[in-house]
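I hope you will forgive my troubling you with a question about protein structure. The record follows directly beneath this note:
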Amino acid sequence: MTLVARLPAWIKRAKNREEVLRAVGRLHASLGPGPPAGERNRRGAPASPVS
């Protein structure tokens, strides 16, 4: 099953686009700054420091 197929129908409806984008923006802002681009491993987690 694809990621999009798993989303609720109300998220996929075009008429809800603004609400969904606002919610994603709030979530993004609440996470705070992350590591610089390119400093994440393949699973999306911060890369381990190299010893």
About this structure: The chain has three helices and no strands. The helical segments are 3-6, 9-12, 17-31. The mean pLDDT is 81. The two ends are 39 Å apart (CA to CA).
